[in-house]
Fold each of these.
Amino acid sequence: MSFYEVCQRYGKFDFDSFFKQVTDADIKRIIAKSRLSETDYLALLSPGAEKHLEEMAQKAHRLTVQNFGRVIFLFTPMYLANYCVNQCVYCGFNIHNKLERKKLTLAEVKREAKIIADTGLKHILILTGESRRESPVSYLRECVEVLIKYFTSISIEVYPLEEKEYNELISVGVDGFTMFQEVYNEEAYAQFHPGGPKRNYRFRLEAPERACRAGMRTVNVGALLGLHQWRTEAFLTGLHAHYLQNTFPDVEISVSPPRMRPQLGGFPPKVEVSNKNLVQYILAFRLFMPRGGVTISTREPSELRDRLVRLGATKMSAGSSTAVGGHSAGCTQTGQFEISDTRSVMEMANMLYVQDYQPVYKDWQTL
Amino acid sequence: MRDVLMIGGKEVTSRLFLGTGKFSSHRLIPEVIRACGSQVVTVALRRIDPEYEEENIVSYVPGECILMPNTSGARNAEEAVRIARVARAAGCGNWVKIEVIADNRYLLPDNYETVRATEILAAEGFVVLPYMSPDLITAKKLVEAGAAAVMPLGSPIGSNRGLRTRELIRILIEEIPLPIIVDAGIGRPSEAAEAMEMGAAAVLVNTAIATAGDPVAMGRAFGLAVEAGRLAYLAGPGKTHEYARASSPLTGFLRD
């Protein structure tokens, strides 16, 4: 059974009625449990659980330290290309947006790699818009063959591929995969993706399964928070991670809880997701999946990211740019969205040291 | 008589092996080693970065310690073998702790793949210490495969749940002619002492020390507990009895 079928089970589920029935006693009982069910996780995402955030935080912190230690894994994104044929209403790379389209040459990839490698990072996440013509798998492969000389772990966040294409990228050194479903609610998904191949909800939803089958070591999923009701989107994201971990037990599964940021196109969030909401999501997920990773990007402001170190986060980006070639000096490209935390890798590391945490620059070795 | 543990032709006097993956700062590692006296330190190859001296975890392991790279992240024998070879080529010596884990929920080892990796690496001259789920038949196969020691788990990694596999470890200690090193799950010094009293050759600890409020003090506590447990084992603990033993027995008069 694919995750699409799992999602279908909740297609008609009355989330509001469920949330209304959750009691304080339920939340206390769930926090005390060592293994949570799907509905326990949903209860922790309810409005009623907001009164119990401190108890959830204490347990989430303890579980995170126990499972991961006092460490935060660091990485940075590298945008290879911003050509895109999709019409995602919330994205700066939308085909209709007027921005300079660019694809890095291999020499430029090398230049970016050198700059990033000089910060000490060994884990890179490469991204493109969706354009099989401008950024085909063969191009990704060529870029990986350059990057492998500088990094020991290479993850991809690109358009959904077929399993054999993931196989091909793994064979040249890719070991990690990120795919944001953006919106798990299928009806809402259709509204936000009016044109382009990204309209195919199921092909995107099942991409992480294909990546796991192909042999990716780490797989990261997420919903873009701000497009649809955050509680149900957080629930389905957690369920997705849980499904992947159960189906592919040898893959390291993690989630990202990205919140919408201002972008070219100016599309505003449809729903507000406050700091409190975001924290509740992360804590509930940690209690549901004690060994699941939680990735916090530079979309979040520095003050909040500093706090999230002790609230379940395991991996953070640093020294980020969302523009193609953005790590190279003098680049003035428009990014996919505006980042919030602009700190360098060294500044992030210093923040972690102050909090009595060890930054981890390298956590995999290319074999 | 000196009580030493011989593994792979090397002699160690401390029977506390130390893991390094969860410390809040690499700088704590030498302090903890000083406090606990450990002479064997395991480091995941995936974390070793010779190109970044300041952040390279190996830079913080004192030179007099035996470095035991581990194959954390390996999902099968082939990956474990490749990791071990990379570690040796990187100058990390020929000791290796085999970890083959294909289950990210409990981090339980794959015994079958562990035996396969042990066989290949022992034949290549590595000193192989395999981490395993305590199972007598697997342990015997590891002996045949050329392991230098056998490292059964006390309970799942990082769980701090203690010696949940006590009976199975006891059987390994009785039956296996190699050092039995209890690895994973030990949460308190008293549990380390208990493992040593049972006759374990050593224990390997990471989470319980690294995530303690004061890792240096906890390291010292573990060092003392392991030493106490070993001394007790060598001293031969008195037998336990279900009932009290009267010092003036009722039938004493019949001996006359």
Amino acid sequence: MLDIRNLHASVDDIEILRGVNMKVNEGEVHAIMGPNGSGKSTLAQVLAGNEAYEVTDGGVDFLGQDLLEMPAEERARLGVFMAFQYPTEIPGITNAYFLQAALNEIRKSHGLEELDAMEFQELLHEKMELVAIDPGFANRPVNQGFSGGEKKRNEILQMAVMEPKLAILDETDSGLDIDALRIVADGVNKLRDPKRATILVTHYQRILEYVVPDYVHVLYQGVLVKSGGKELALELEKKGYDWLKNELATA
Amino acid sequence: MTTDTIKATPKERFLVELQKLNGAPGPDWMKRVRKAGEESVKALDFPHHKEEEWRFTNIKPILQHEYAPAAAPADHGLDAAAVEPYFLGTGVCAELVFVNGFYEPALSRAENLPQGLTAGNLANAGDHGATLEKHLGQHAPARPNMFNALNAAFLHDGAFIYAAQNCVAREPVHLIFLTTTGENGPVAAYPRVLAVAEANSEAAFIEQFAPVGQPGVYFNSVVTEMAAAEGARLTHYKVTQEADEAFHMATIRGAQEKDSVIQSFSFTFRGRIVRNDVSSVLGGEGGDCKLNGLYLTQADQLVDNHTFIEHAAPHCASWIGYKGVLDGKSHGVFTGKILVQRDAQKTDSNQLNSNMLLTDTATIDTKPQLEIFADDVKCTHGSTTGKPPEEVIFYFRSRGISEEMARGMLTYGFASEVLEDVDVESLRSRLDRWIFHRYSPKKHTLVPEKAI
């Protein structure tokens, strides 16, 4: 489904990704771990199409198409979804209005009828129930005045409404207390599907106790230095990132 | 228009028109206001942009034209069906239609007035002689503003709203001021409104301005006076949707006694040059004044909102919140002036002017102006001008929404926030739809749930 080859990317002329290679198949959950500054968020942003990040080399295929050639909105319509680490506040625009617009843009691009307000309302309430979000959220401006945990849950709600093929969660677990983490993890698990792939970008092993990954990768200084099964996350948790840094330094 | 057709100065032309009306009929109180107006027109000059209060607003385009004053009810041929689209239908206690400033009873509805509320036209308000004597022309006098002088000098009719003591009229009176674009050259109309709320009463009214007939030039010079007695609440909404070639100069003036509340909303959507001078005097302790506004400009429009609150008594609160969205080559002007008199201790006054510029050619001149003579006060002011940040646009795009549509939605969101405090549902949803349609990209068929 997703094929990342030798991906190099930089921000403000500083190279952050220095040759990432990775393949993700339908139904798989991949965790990307790594210390701060290793390039995890850059990888997520590049896949989502943020033009502040410049791809200098390599390629990404998604469902057989050249992902890097597409603007962000086309990627979203094709089924790429990124849950933001720091979701933006949008004053004056309610969650319901925002999500209805987003979903209808996606439906239009697939030749489907747009949902009217009534139909959308029904769908939204169903999804809110699925990810355990208070119905009052529908009429609040997007993320405005939301707590950190509410913003992250709102990202999961958006994911539930948009039903992406590839979900990239950029540190969705950071800054959450254990209850909020459980709710977010629960939402992610409910949306797990044999047709949907998930990339969990995280600094901590904690969320992986609730969302069990098929593969764990370690990103360090812009390259994937280690890949393995879910036990790799436990090993990292036990030994810390310094263990890895030392191992790489002596290799 | 060629220069050789204009021999007289603009002021002389207005005086010539005024001479023609000499001896026009009217009750004594009206003649008194007219006389003060005429004397003021003679004594005053049109404001010049070298004057501080008019620095950013050049009124020359208004004075280029020769206007025929609307001296009598127009032969407009409008019927009920023609005015129906302007009616709100629900949430209002009366809908009064004025054409070129003259009341049109046959086109109006005023069956549902609550006990204690009078809503009608000035020319027939003779029963309230003492009230007219006390208030008309007293709060917004003919001097020193030339446009107020013209309005007074040409006074013939207008709207009169009166809430008797303890009367509670929550549903507003809807005043619909239509102006004809005129087959025989541009018309000048002088709509006038007087709203008086006696002690512990509550009343609200909507002023709506729109053209009828073919597109064209006209000039509306409007004066609105509001008097809130002790403990009274007056809510004022103004919706300005003049013809794209038309000019509109308005003075809205409040006078507040102890513990009274005046809230004024001003929505400016259309008109070539529009100026609103909105002000209130907090003359008794415990008063509260809120001035809110939204101006959406485009093409070569000039919209000037000049707000002013005078704190003349202690323990009063005021708020000025105006928002603007400026498109095309349009020009916005905002002034937020606060005067705190020496005795007005414990004043709490805040203001915010936020603007969104949609093009590089649109401009805004914004200026807070605080004059504080008391020493125990809290006065804040702020202004913001900008475009939506790229990270916000990216958030939309990452959800499948194009940049164009994102900008439209953001502009709608920015502007429609002003509607949150509009209590009249029928008015709020209509304004919401207008704002939505102005900024939604054409193929975007979404209806926001707010408008349903």
Amino acid sequence: MKLEELRFGTELLKRGFASMQKGGVIMDVVNAEQASIAEDAGAVAVMALERVPAEIRKAGGVARMADPARITEIMDAVSIPVMAKVRIGHFVEAQVLESLGVDMIDESEVLTPADEQFHIDKSLFSVPFVCGARDLGEALRRIDEGAAMIRTKGEAGTGNVVEAVRHMRNIMGEIRALQGKSTQEMMDRAREIEAPAGLVLDVAKRGRLPVVNFSAGGIATPSDAAMMMQLGADGVFVGSGIFLSQNPQQMAKAIVEAVNHYDDPRTIADVSRNLGEAMKGLDIHLLKPDEVLQTRGR
Amino acid sequence: MGVRIGVLDLQGDVSEHIGAFRQALAEAGLLEGSDVITVRRAEQIPACDGLVIPGGESTTISKLIDKNRMRGPLEEFQGGIFATCAGLIVMAKDVPDPRVRSLGLLDIDVERNAFGRQKDSFEADLPIKGLDSPFHAVFIRAPVISRVGEGVEVLATVDGAPVAVRQGKHLGLSFHPELSGDTRVHRLFLSGL
């Protein structure tokens, strides 16, 4: 077996990488110290950022890819995979992250979109991508563009799980609704949700998305994380919820354990004891239309 | 005679392993009377004939083994253990990285992420001892085995480095046979139980 006979960057390797994250917690971090805390708590990966989403909301202005120096600092600090975000449609930010060697790119609505018409053609990259989705059609359009992993969008930086729940229920419900349909009805449904027919048939056959589907956008407590798992998530992203809580270290460990024991309320109760304050949340209904992140990209 | 295979359900690609073992049991004509279960509690371990430690993140899996008090039952387990990627790291005697507390059930040392990051992940057709043609192997941020003890048989290598070993009933693999749709490595494990 010689190294020159190897194949890199294939679809199987991209989706396989995402599969290895299942049952895990991916945590937003902004420096090497936070990354080490996350790794030590049992995170399966970290998302390297300039600011966590709640701080991005506060800062306003155009939110862009993080400074490469910050991303490499975090890559050097931990042994687990490091992900980083690019603006929707910003394929050059993606090229830059690929050149840095990040393990997965998040084409994210948390940053200010760079293209309101097109998402990145992710099939052109050898690095795997994760993308947000609010419903089945959006998830399948992203998969068709080459996403190796989906995360439900929720509403990032709010510490409010309500939108994460809405989006997970949407996708799971739409998949269940496909099950009883004839092929002809599924083709019709594919046109309605603007998704490729082949992918709709594939989802109906599997009874799930063909890639891993995590939950994101508003998870702030161990119970939030466990609820998303019970609703069918393969794992969770926790953004502002850890490092904006009173005891990040304890909160990080508690969420990892709650995801591991998502169907055991006694363990969730145990890990939730004396955790201190979770991040201060936002009422979704008080957000102004231009403060809503989930409607970015379609 | 059926067998019971338990897949450690702590973190990682658990459902892929369950699917692959069900298929392997069917192809080996062993499905009748056999079952493949998820193992989430330490008490389930002794009742299995074979265990799987799946791919995932070795730092996370090794922490959760301790949190779930599975270290003792795993050390005392009499059956075979099928360990892939993160599982291989967890099974090793020594991992030169304090972030992983390994079990020491295979007399090998393992180097994590030995090929590099995700960009260095690869697929290759790998000749494996005991299989009559190469196996399509998927390596994802894969480890390699840096030391092999006596009584450990090397089944495959990449560029000279061992990536598949057998010790007694245990199989340890750097790659992910559960992802390639070919169950020959799973059947090799079943035949050794």
Amino acid sequence: MVESLKHTAAAAIAKLIHNGHFNSKSYAFDQESSNEVYAQLLRLDPQWSYNIDLKLKGLSFILTKVNFENVEMGPQTFGLLTQHNLKSLVLGNQDEIPSLEHYMSRLFRTSQIDHLDLSGRSQFSTAWLKTTGQQLPLLRTLNVSGVKLLNPDFFQFCKSFPNLYSLDISNCGVTILTGISRLKNLRHLSLRSLIYESWYDIRELFALKLLNVLDLSMHSTHHARRNMQRFLDCKQVLPELRFLECSGNLMDEDMLEELLITHSHLHQLAIVDCDVKAPKSSPIRILSCTTFDSSITALKYYLNLKRRNEVQICFQELRLHVKRLHERKMQYDVTECVTLSLQSLEKLPCSLIMNFDIVEERLFTSRLSFEADFLAEIVLHNFHRLSRVHTRLICDILLNNVNRQLIRDLRAETMWNAIIYLFNMGVFVDKQKLKGIASHCAASLHNGDPIIEEQAMRILTSCVTGKTLELVLSITESKHDTTPICLGFLRAALHKEDEQSSRRVAEKILAATHNNEEECKRYIKHGAMNMLISAIDRFDSEPMHIVILGIIRNLVMMSPYDKVQQIFTCVQFRTFQILLRNWTSSDRAYLMLSIFALRLNHQDKNFECVFRKCADELLRKHFPYLLATEITVDVDIYFDRGIVQNILRTSEEVGLVLWALLTIKIYAQKSLWNSRSIRDSNFFYLIENPHIASEVVNVASENVRFLFHW
Amino acid sequence: MDKNGSAAGGFQAASNKDDGLEEPDSQKTGAKPQPVPISGLEGPRSKYVKLVSNDDHEFIIKREVAMTSKSLRELFANPTVDLAAANNTVYFSDFQSHILQKVCHYLAYKTKYRHSRVAPPFDIPPDIAMDLLAAANELEC
């Protein structure tokens, strides 16, 4: 949204004042400019208005209108304001100020306030309210929504402000309107989300013969939404009523008919979320969400008023209407829908909204915006009618929403599907935001809540499909990611039983964990080992097995010595024993035996005697076969980390030494350079003269030495 | 009051200065060259309008751009005969040319980005911020 020139210029001046660069000390700001510049100063420095007051010293300001919503006031500010003849004051939430009532009273002595907004969580005493009424005889507009009032207090309250034209006591807790008849000049009255037990509690309402606008709306989460029933039960009429807001109240067609008959003089009636269908034709303008067009009209109305709750309801209903239109292949104004969504997100930043869970039908807090949900529906069915600019904006909006939290809300998944759709259609997707979502989903796989886990799995599964796979594979993980993102992707790909995508993700993990101790620890910590071993059984694919075994090898190699038996357990060893019987591939067999060897090398020889014996026997048994075949596994890392050298020097296990000799053979056969490096190495003599006395080792040593004499 | 202490006269529609009288011959030799007539300024639904600063700088802008100012919108939405006859020209006695120029820039900026969710910032030089604020108050834009 484009700021007005007034706001922009005032902001520029405010910035000069804020930075101490304003040089026109003699300039006398007029009233309108003063108000505007002060408002901009508050936006620059909302934490402590006292700082602003200091900066204003020496400047000629004429403040008549101030708004301290979202601003921390200081007692000194009240002193400043007493020097001005205020006409309008929005206090905001100033509970932190001690003796607030005292400062307010002092301010009111020098003011001629006609508009006062005390809405929020502040509390005011009955005595103070009475005094305020006496101090502000010109007060015409008063907003105390959210300020808790008891019924007796309300009676006294009405006595204190007899000249009000507009009053807002929404959410203040008053359940009996006794005393309101004293406000005979009242034209506007807002009673949002107040609950009345019977018609008797609101009968005095009908004494307000000049009332023009009445708001009896309810939040849809309230179990008691029968204020309109109470209103009609009074069997009376407000003769001057022109605008009646009933949204959120439970109504039926009989009630609506009665209302239209008794109050035929209404200009506008709002019945959004009233569970009643608006009549097709009526001389009264009826705001409802009965149809797509009426929903658009209602949305525009509430958007203009910045009524968040009603706006959200309109978007909910619009989404349903649009969904039906999509199902019937019917056209509608897509651009208008997108524009309204963007405007809503701009005017009404997303906040916590109470809503019914569509899965378990219970209350919970949702952080997802209904606008984003609505946009997702449009994307999935009307992408071709979106402009390029809009698709980019929508993608960002959806990413921001999904990235917030995965909860029991299928809308997050719908939004995600829309994101994937946008990406597949060529829209740029921010990798960092995508990474955040993936990380969140990966962590959610172990949430403990099956619904959340399933949702996370579905989202991750969609990541490893088609073009999206290439996108996710390009994501660079960082050390700050608590849960390895690719582990989540791999789990999803395995869940999908897609060998190709599983292997692609696994290859990325293989590269990430190669010679990277920290990364290996992260994967180990998050249960990678069990998942990897179970993955071997899922696919009968040699390339897949080689990658999986490569990762397991990396994890075992990098694991701490004292924890290796926890990482690669005897149970897993037995699983490998069974697999080894069926595998004829030398590469797979060699990798598996390498894992055994690394496990042996990590382990103290005095522990796990059975495992050591079995592993040693396997290594001995398979050595002759592997020695006679070509193996293409990369073995450089064993030399880079000195594993082979260490085994030759210190190991007393025949099988382990045989593996080391086999590895040397594999390494030497890769290239002439490798062969020469072994021959020239300082451990070559260990190959010629093994330190353990074993006929098998001696024969193996001779076979390996042959390579270097060839 | 503006900073000069005089009453803020704001702007007014130009009156028709052509009273039909012929200038004396003695003045013709030293007379300023006649301005080149610009098409598009005629009539109540002209494509362009003209804004003139107090130092006689003329800014011709599209009518739709001028309409982004509430004050100008009200003026041009209910055009008088004089306004149309004066080629839809508005004189600003309180605005210098550099201020009026910046105002025109803003009106064009707002026209271009009014429906955009993301608009580039409109930069205001510090030295004209005060005058621009006064102009914004007057033009209601």
